[in-house]
């Protein structure tokens, strides 16, 4: 079957997508002259990495992740100036089900030569992300070692789709079939697509609506075969969104939010696993252990009465042990002292665990470096039965909901009634208080932004238990 669809016809008042496709047709014509298919077709070997098998492992309970290498985009312009594929791939290989590589040159600053660079580092299948309109591109993708291609139903008609998908399958490659509306979703089902992506971004005006994947999957729920996997694409920036959408999606394609973060490893951990913190760190070996197991934040306590209090000199040694985002924990201490510690340790955040009021927080915020966050602990009595009553402070980036007993705030080893957590603030709440390997799965189900672990992963105050840390993060990872 030959492709008869014409991609070269000029369009008046073309949308962003239409302009891209017109330019892609010209690119293909030029590339075929530069590198004729006859020069490399016989060198192509079938893929030995199954994209379908990798994505089939994705479930609503434990989604699959396609993590993307993307330097720029039409909607955001330059996203990652220091685009080091080796560094990116060495992070992604620990978390991805598959790795997506942008190869479009004009709009995404991609290149087909990126594909083998990434594939040589990761063991997962590699997806060639481009605007596929010709058989030549499919051959080219496999020649450059891609294990799968993207086919956009907003770009190709059914005839073209079948030709390109059949060719990809003959080369051992999988196909991610992208849809963005009801008509395209129906077509994907009719075409027998195995992996259906729902792009939450409108490619004609570049707006994003995360409800799109919800609406489409719910409307066609009775028509989606059990072995078909739904991938939510675009607009994923935090773990809360993953938790909300995994009810309808089996996996997620995430690119811009990761590429825009210079701290890529912790950015991936935050989105996939949640913003999890281990507090009360006092030993360098514990810092290394919690980082290696998946923590994003490390808590250093400077509250003088705490059994886990560290000195500035101790803290300076701890922050060099592993690249955690370090959070300094303070309680009713002077602003000058907090700012001094934050500056000397280059803290990611300061956490206030006392009676600090709105005026104090405002004054502190003005003296801290602009990129240092302010977190506030909300202590809830373990015997409390009524709803938590407080006003959200815009100067507070995160709230830590922690347990309180008559004699102690934080590090109590006890839980409070989690039903008291305000639903409308879970997107900025990290749950603390008595979380251990025994109850971490229940804690995850509270759908907060992340978890804060302390005494529940210790063998003694300030001494983290390696096996408890490993077990709790294993359970966190297996939940997503």
Automatic annotation (TrEMBL):
Any keyword Amino-acid biosynthesis? yes
Q: Which UniProt keywords apply?
A: Amino-acid biosynthesis, Aromatic amino acid biosynthesis, Decarboxylase, Isomerase, Lyase, Multifunctional enzyme, Tryptophan biosynthesis
Q: Does the keyword Flavoprotein apply?
A: no
Q: What is any one GO biological process for this UniProt entry? A: L-tryptophan biosynthetic process
Q: Where is the N-(5'phosphoribosyl) anthranilate isomerase (PRAI) domain?
A: 276-474
Q: Which GO terms describe its molecular function?
A: indole-3-glycerol-phosphate synthase activity; phosphoribosylanthranilate isomerase activity
> EC number(s) in its UniProt entry?
4.1.1.48, 5.3.1.24
* Matching InterPro entries: Aldolase_TIM (IPR013785), Indole-3-glycerol_P_synth (IPR045186), Indole-3-glycerol_P_synth_dom (IPR013798), Indole-3-GlycerolPSynthase_CS (IPR001468), PRAI_dom (IPR001240), RibuloseP-bd_barrel (IPR011060)
Cite the PROSITE patterns for this sequence.
Answer: IGPS
Pfam families on file: IGPS (PF00218), PRAI (PF00697)
* Pathway it works in: Amino-acid biosynthesis; L-tryptophan biosynthesis; L-tryptophan from chorismate: step 4/5; Amino-acid biosynthesis; L-tryptophan biosynthesis; L-tryptophan from chorismate: step 3/5
- Describe the location of the Indole-3-glycerol phosphate synthase domain by residue ranges: 17-270
Catalytic reaction(s) noted: N-(5-phospho-beta-D-ribosyl)anthranilate = 1-(2-carboxyphenylamino)-1-deoxy-D-ribulose 5-phosphate; 1-(2-carboxyphenylamino)-1-deoxy-D-ribulose 5-phosphate + H(+) = (1S,2R)-1-C-(indol-3-yl)glycerol 3-phosphate + CO2 + H2O
Q: Which family does it belong to?
A: In the C-terminal section; belongs to the TrpF family. Belongs to the TrpC family.
State its role: Bifunctional enzyme that catalyzes two sequential steps of tryptophan biosynthetic pathway. The first reaction is catalyzed by the isomerase, coded by the TrpF domain; the second reaction is catalyzed by the synthase, coded by the TrpC domain.
Give the record's subunit note: Monomer.
Q: What is this protein called?
A: Multifunctional fusion protein
């Amino acid at each position: 079957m030959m492709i008869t669809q014409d991609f070269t016809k000029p369009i008046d008042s073309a949308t962003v997508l239409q302009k891209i496709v017109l330019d892609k047709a010209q690119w293909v014509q030029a590339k075929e002259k530069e590198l004729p298919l006859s020069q490399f077709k016989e060198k192509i070997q079938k893929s030995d990495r199954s994209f379908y098998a990798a994505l089939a492992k994705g479930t609503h309970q434990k989604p699959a992740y396609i993590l993307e290498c993307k330097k720029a985009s039409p909607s955001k312009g330059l996203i990652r100036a220091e685009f080091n594929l080796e560094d990116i791939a060495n992070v992604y290989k620990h978390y991805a089900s598959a790795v997506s590589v942008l190869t479009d040159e004009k709009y995404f600053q991609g290149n087909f030569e990126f594909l083998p660079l990434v594939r040589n580092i990761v063991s997962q299948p590699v997806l060639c992300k481009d605007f596929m309109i010709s058989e030549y591109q499919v051959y080219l993708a496999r020649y450059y070692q891609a294990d799968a291609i993207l086919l956009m139903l907003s770009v190709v008609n059914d005839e073209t789709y079948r030709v390109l998908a059949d060719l990809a399958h003959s080369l051992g490659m999988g196909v991610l079939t992208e849809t963005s509306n009801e008509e395209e979703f129906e077509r994907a089902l009719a075409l027998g697509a195995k992996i259906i992506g729902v792009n939450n971004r409108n490619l004609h005006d570049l707006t994003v609506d995360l409800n799109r994947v919800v609406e489409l999957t719910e409307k066609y729920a009775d028509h989606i075969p059990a072995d078909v996997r739904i991938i939510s694409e675009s607009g994923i920036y935090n773990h809360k969104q993953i938790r909300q959408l995994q009810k309808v999606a089996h996996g997620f394609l995430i690119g811009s939010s990761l590429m825009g973060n210079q701290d890529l490893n912790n950015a991936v951990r935050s989105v996939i696993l949640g913003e999890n913190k281990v507090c009360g760190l006092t030993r360098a070996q514990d810092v290394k252990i919690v980082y290696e197991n998946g923590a994003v934040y490390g808590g250093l306590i400077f509250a003088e009465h705490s059994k886990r209090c560290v000195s500035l000199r101790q803290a300076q040694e701890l922050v060099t042990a592993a690249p955690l985002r370090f959070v300094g924990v303070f309680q009713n201490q002077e602003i000058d002292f907090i700012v001094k510690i934050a500056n000397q340790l280059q803290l990611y955040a300061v956490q206030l665990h006392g009676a600090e009021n709105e005026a104090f927080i405002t004054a502190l915020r003005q003296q801290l470096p602009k990129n240092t966050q302010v977190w506030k602990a909300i202590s809830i009595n373990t015997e409390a039965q009524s709803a938590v009553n407080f006003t959200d402070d815009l100067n507070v980036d995160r709230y830590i909901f922690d347990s309180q007993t008559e004699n102690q705030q934080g590090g109590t080893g006890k839980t409070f009634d989690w039903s008291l957590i305000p639903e409308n603030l879970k997107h900025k709440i990290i749950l603390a208080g008595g979380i251990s390997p025994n109850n971490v799965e229940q804690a995850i189900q509270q759908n907060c932004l992340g978890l804060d672990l302390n005494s529940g992963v210790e063998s003694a105050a300030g001494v983290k238990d390696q096996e408890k840390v490993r077990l709790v993060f294993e359970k966190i990872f297996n939940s997503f």
